[in-house]
């Protein structure tokens, strides 16, 4: 009986095992027969940049029409992540303008990206960038799982940003030492960054190399990491009564008497704009060092209504005013405003920023005082991503003294990626070394504070300040008729020279031209012929007396066509006409045409000149623009009156 039971149990177990194996095999066969889920390729638009997508490797579908030049591409074969993904795909030849699927893979940032024309797309050059990508056909690789939906980077909340900043400011502990909790005590009006920047000793090489791992750079990108070291412990020790005898405990501050607010340093009365680089390539830490530099400059300048005023414009793709000249009237308020500036990101379009400052920043509405020199300090990390020459020329001719601070400029190998070689010399007010400062690395930037402040406050050397004496094209229209005579004609030329001598003459300052007329007209020299005061004065001496009739109307028309037609658009146009008699032709229509073209006309009459004609020729009001003397030897008396009226009129006009 026992044997039968055991046999039955064995049979049941055997049957159970058979059923189990059969079920597993059946399930496997069913699984094989089941249709696998289809991979969904995410679609993107033509304007999506690779840097906005956080996935490292992905397949996407591009729409038609991405060959359009408004979708910017940077580089060739290997593209900067600031590029349009689909635009780069067309440039690379993987796609045509009809769109399609592509495989995108992120790679390390490069030290430079060279533009090229390919497949109907013109890619642009770009300096070093933090991240790159390459493109291939949209075929999945075996064993690789691609996302069906992409993850995009998004701006963080202020709280998250604050936490990130705090973490970035903390250095990792040096190996072999235990990280100790630190309570930071800080003197009012200072920041941890400021204290570290102005008082910390330079770390030893070993400490620097240890800290450099805090923010690793991708391979192939020129490293711009700064030496980092633990700042909090040092600040804490310095902000103690034992280590710093000048330290004031917080509880004692209420007993300190408040000093009256400074009116500013009157020996440095300038209107100052800082154009700071907020591009993505600069990184967060270098951007903080840039802000600290601004704070140091503000503290050194002693800002106030009677002294220097300061505003800040940040540029990336586009410029934006952070605060203008009238926003803050003391160094402490400027310092607090600088602390609140957040990085914009994007490219490094310094040329666009200079144009913005010229047209918008230095206006009465934004606090420009008129009598104070205008100074723009442009800070550039490496080199700009656009051209600065033309924008800077217009700024100089508008009276803006441009300084350039170039930090970590291009190496010999990187110069091939520069859009505009020698950009600083093409931008600054003068190429004499006074307006250009080069800093080898960001760690050395603070050493530039004193030299810069000394230069911007040296108002006698700010050669590009726009005044009534250096902002015009002045055309002299000289009567050479027979009634003048040789001797008196030399007196007229001396009058022309005396007036010219009052102006600052150069290609970017005031320019002088002259013509002589009788019945006919003759151009003696044009605005672009002589670029120094000595050359202009010598040219005036060489003008020969012509002799003939007096056709003043024809002379004015000739001056408009041959002199002022070649005037620069942003120059004030001044015509100074000198005559000793009544015109043989009509003057009304030519005079009206001159006024209509914006030419400010001064009419100087001598001896037999008709007062009614002088009033017609002169710009309204005639009492400010028409002058008469009874004899040639008294012409010198008119010089200060003409200069005074030119300057009074200039100062009463809007700046732009």
How is the topology of this model organized?
Layout (H helix, E strand, L loop, with lengths): L1 H32 L23 E6 L12 E2 L1 E3 L4 H8 L7 E9 L3 E2 L3 E2 L2 E2 L3 E2 L3 E7 L20 H12 L22 H8 L5 H7 L20 H7 L32 E7 L6 H18 L7 E7 L3 E5 L7 H9 L10 H12 L12 E8 L7 H9 L2 E8 L15 H5 L8 E4 L9 H8 L15 E8 L6 H16 L9 E7 L3 E5 L7 H9 L10 H11 L9 E8 L8 H9 L2 E8 L4 H7 L4 H4 E4 L9 H14 L4
Parallel strand pairs: 10-11, 10-13, 13-14, 14-15, 16-17, 16-19, 19-20, 20-21
Antiparallel strand pairs: 1-4, 2-3, 3-9, 4-9, 5-8, 6-7, 11-12, 17-18
Helix pairs in contact: 7-8, 7-12, 9-10, 13-14, 15-16
Overview of the molecule:
The chain is α/β, with parallel strands linked by helices and 656 residues long. Helix content is 31%, strand content 17%. The chain contains 19 helices and 21 strands. The strands form 5 sheets. The chain has a 6-stranded mixed β-sheet, sandwiched between helices. The chain has a 6-stranded mixed β-sheet with strand order 18-17-16-19-20-21, with helices on both faces. It has a 5-stranded antiparallel β-sheet with strand order 1-4-9-3-2, with helices on one face. Helix 7 (284-301) packs antiparallel against helix 8, helix 13 (486-501) runs antiparallel to helix 14 (533-541) and helix 15 runs parallel beside helix 16 (588-596). The longest helix is centred in the first third of the chain and has 32 residues, at 2-33.
């Amino acid at each position: 009986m026992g044997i039968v039971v055991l046999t039955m149990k064995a049979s049941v177990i055997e049957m159970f095992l058979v059923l189990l194996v059969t079920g597993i095999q059946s399930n496997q066969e069913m699984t094989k027969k089941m249709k696998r889920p289809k991979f969904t390729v995410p679609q993107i638009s033509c304007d999506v940049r690779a840097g906005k997508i956080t996935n490292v490797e992905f397949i996407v579908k591009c729409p038609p029409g991405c060959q359009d030049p408004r979708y910017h591409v940077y580089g060739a074969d290997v593209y900067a992540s600031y590029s349009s993904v689909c635009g780069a795909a067309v440039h690379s030849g993987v796609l045509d303008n009809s769109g399609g699927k592509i495989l995108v893979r992120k790679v390390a940032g490069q030290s430079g990206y060279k533009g090229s024309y390919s497949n109907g797309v013109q890619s642009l050059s770009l300096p070093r960038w933090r991240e790159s990508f390459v493109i291939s056909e949209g075929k999945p690789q075996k064993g690789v799982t691609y996302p069906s939906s992409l993850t995009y980077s998004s701006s963080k909340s202020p709280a998250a940003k604050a936490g990130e900043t705090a973490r970035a400011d903390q250095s990792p502990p040096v190996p072999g030492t235990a990280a100790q909790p630190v309570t930071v005590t800080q003197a009012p009006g200072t920041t941890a960054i400021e204290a570290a920047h102005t008082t910390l000793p330079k770390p030893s090489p070993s400490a620097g190399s240890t800290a450099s791992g805090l923010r690793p750079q991708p391979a192939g990108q020129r490293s711009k990491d700064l030496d980092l070291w633990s700042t909090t412990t040092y600040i804490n020790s310095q902000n103690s009564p034992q280590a710093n005898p000048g330290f004031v405990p917080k509880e004692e501050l209420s007993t300190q008497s408040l000093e009256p607010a400074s009116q500013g340093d009157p020996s440095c009365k300038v209107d100052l704009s800082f154009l700071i680089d907020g591009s993505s390539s600069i990184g967060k830490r270098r951007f903080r060092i840039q802000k600290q530099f601004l704070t140091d400059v503000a503290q050194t300048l002693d800002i106030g209504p009677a002294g220097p005023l300061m505003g800040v414009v940040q540029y990336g793709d586009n410029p934006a005013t952070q605060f203008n000249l009238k926003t803050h009237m003391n160094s402490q308020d400027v310092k607090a405003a600088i602390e609140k500036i957040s990085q914009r990101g994007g490219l490094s379009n310094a040329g666009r920023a200079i144009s913005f400052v010229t047209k918008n920043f230095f206006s009465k509405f934004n606090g420009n005082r008129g009598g104070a020199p205008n100074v723009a300090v442009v800070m550039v990390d490496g080199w700009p991503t656009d051209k600065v020459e033309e924008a800077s020329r217009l700024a100089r001719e508008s009276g803006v003294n441009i300084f350039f601070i170039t930090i970590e400029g291009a190496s010999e190998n990187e110069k091939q990626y520069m859009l505009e070689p020698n950009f600083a010399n093409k931008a600054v007010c003068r190429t004499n070394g006074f307006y250009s400062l080069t800093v080898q690395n960001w760690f050395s930037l603070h050493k530039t504070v004193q030299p810069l402040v000394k230069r911007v406050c040296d108002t006698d050397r700010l050669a590009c300040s726009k005044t009534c004496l250096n902002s015009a094209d002045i055309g002299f229209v000289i009567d050479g008729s027979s009634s003048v005579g040789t001797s008196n004609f030399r007196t007229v030329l001396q009058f022309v020279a005396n007036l010219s001598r009052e102006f600052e003459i150069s290609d970017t300052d005031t320019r002088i031209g002259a013509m002589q007329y009788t019945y006919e007209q003759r151009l003696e020299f044009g605005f672009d012929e002589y670029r120094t005061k000595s050359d202009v004065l010598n040219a005036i001496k060489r003008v020969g007396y012509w002799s003939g009739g007096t056709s003043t109307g024809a002379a004015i028309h000739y001056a408009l066509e041959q002199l002022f037609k070649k005037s620069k658009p942003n120059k004030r146009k001044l015509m100074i006409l000198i005559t000793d008699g009544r015109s043989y032709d009509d003057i009304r229509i030519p005079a009206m045409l001159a006024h209509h073209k914006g030419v400010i006309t001064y009419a100087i009459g001598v001896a037999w000149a008709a007062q009614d004609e002088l009033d017609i020729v002169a710009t309204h009001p005639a009492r400010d623009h028409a002058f008469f003397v009874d004899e040639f030897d008294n012409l010198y008396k008119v010089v200060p009156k003409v200069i005074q009226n030119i300057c009074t009129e200039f100062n009463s006009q809007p700046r732009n």
